[in-house]
Amino acid sequence: MGSASWLTGGLILLPACAGVLCYFLSAARWRNALILLTSLLLIALSMLVFMRGGLEYTPRSGIWHVLVTWADAVLLAAFFFYGWKRRNVLVMALVLLQAAALGYVKVVSGEEAQPLFVADWLTITMLLIVGIIGSVVVVYSIPYMRAHEEHLQLTRSKQPRFFLLLLLFLGAMNGLLLANSLPWLFFFWEVTTLCCFLLIAHDDTEPAWESAYRALWMNLIGGAGLAVAMVLFYHQAHTLSVREIVEGHSSSVAMLLPLVFLCLAGFTKSAQMPFHGWLLGAMVAPTPVSALLHSSTMVKAGAYLILRFAPALRDTYPSYLIALIGGFTFVMAAMLAISQQNAKRVLAYSTVSNLGLIVACAGLNTPMALSAGVMLIIFHAISKGLLFMAVGVIEEGIHSRDIERMEGLFAKMPFTTTVTVIGIASMLLPPFGVLIAKWAAIESSVKLPVATVMFVIGSTFTVMFWTKWVGKLLSVSPGNPPVRMERLHPLYLGTLGLLAAGATAFSLMVAEVLNRLVVPAVTRYYGSAGFATDMPVASEVGWFPVLMLFLVLVLAFLLPLLFIRIRRADVAPPYLCGEQVEEVPDVRFRSAGDSIEEVVAGGHYFEYFFGEARHNRWVNAVAVLLLILMFGVAVL
Question: Which of 158, 212, 292, 484 has its CB 3.0 to 4.6 Å from that of 137, i.e. a possible disulfide?
Answer without folding.
Answer: 292
